[in-house]
Amino acid sequence: MAKKLKEAMLYQKQQDRRVFCQLCPHYCVIDEGKRGICQVRENQDGLLYSLVYGRTVTQNIDGVEKKPLFHFYPGSKTYSLATAGCNFHCQYCTNWQVSQMSVEEFAECGVEATPEKIVSTAIEAGCQSIAYTYVEPTIFFEYIHEIASLAHSYGLFNLFKTNGFMTAEMLKICHPYLNAANVDLKAFRDKTYRQMGGSLQPVLDSLKLMKSLGIWLEITTVIIPGINDEPEELADIAEFIAQELGIDVPWHITRFFPAYKMENVQPTPLEILYEARDIGLGKGLQYVYFGNFLGRGNQDTVCPTCKQLLIQRRGFELIENLMQSNQCPFCETLIPGVGLCHQVS
Ligand code: SF4
Q1: Which residues of the chain, if any, have pLDDT below 70?
Q2: Architecture of domain 55-321
Q3: Residue of 11, 14, 22, 23 to mutate, ligand 1, most atoms within 8 A of C-beta
Q4: Buried-state track 68-95, b at ≥16 Cβ within 10 A, e below 16
Q5: Is the pTM of this model over 0.90?
Q6: Whole-angstrom Cα distance, residue 258 to residue 218?
């Protein structure tokens, strides 16, 4: 199957038929006939093309909690999709079969889907949103731009599960239709980000920009033994969230399990998760959740003032939602989020 081409957004033509991609902070300068670091954008005859437009490799109906988004229309369904490719190369990627898939393989196994088809399928399935997830959304931005604009016009929400490694230019284009994002803050050491194929500062900049643009934000940190589990680093992450984003931004502390090229690393010890939660609470964060670790209360939303249980979950499953507005029904404290009183029909 021939690759479907779409001329890229956010690039400039340069001398000698080179192109300069401004979609993510790698800012690749790409020679004619070559691809960028993400391997899904190619310079052909001095023009930059997306090689993953118009096809998906994964489409699922998920609960919004699976992104994870715990303060955005609890219990709602989201139509989740991905193409191949990523601008990071994390050694512990749980979706590496897709994120590191070649465009040649993608051309064979991807499924053609027009934006119209995706939006109509999402609506027919009773989804309230479309989630761009499993791989980094940034790298299939042209496709997202068309799907999300259309979805927005039909009253659907648009969600990102993202590494945050995109340019401000991209975020400013998509923020009118981007309602919520769960952003991985994978570490607080630039060295660690470099090992994953990125860098720290652009992610911090994206987080602050998303917040200022009014995009609902939740943060995920997968805690990996020996990589980002030192108390000082966890404290730096929690401090950044509390000081720069707000104490009401949920932090999902997620347990690592061996995967991909990190099969030999042990799962995160539970005492480190508990320590991370204490650190987060100690920095003032009001909503700290555990991921990949079931247990009573680990995923529940509790009022920070009166400590009453507001939203009960087990893993990604919503059990009960007591919210009837954006205030705690017991003490009227304002609970942050969007559509918190959404009831599953
Ligand atoms: S989106 Fe791809 S081509 Fe563009 S700068 Fe990022 S890695 Fe490079």
Answers
A1: 1-4
A2: Alpha-Beta Barrel (3.20)
A3: 23
A4: bbbbbbbbbbbbbbbbbbbbbbbbbbeb
A5: yes
A6: 24
Atom of ligand 1 nearest to the CA of 22: 5
Give the amino acid at 343. Answer: Q
| Gap between the Cα atoms of 110 and 117, Å rounded | 15
Cα dihedral: 221, 223, 229, 233 (round 10): 0
- pLDDT recorded at residue 344: 83
- What is the spatial distance between Cα 155 and Cα 138, in angstroms, rounded to a whole number? 22
Handedness of CA 90, 92, 94, 100 (dihedral sign): positive
Tell me how far the alpha carbon of residue 76 lies from the centroid of ligand 1, in angstroms: 33
Domain ranges across the chain: 6-50, 55-321
Amino acid present at 168: A
How far is ligand 1, taken at its centre, from the CA of residue 171, in Å?
A: 15
CA atoms of 75 and 297, how far apart (whole Å):
17
Beta-bridge partner residues of 72: 338
What whole-number distance in Å separates Cα of residue 236 and Cα of residue 214? 24
Q: Residue 296's pLDDT is what?
A: 87
Sheet containing 41-44: order of strands:
6-7, 47-50, 41-44
CA pair distance 20, 114, nearest whole angstrom: 28
Distance of CA 106 to the CA centre of its chain: 21
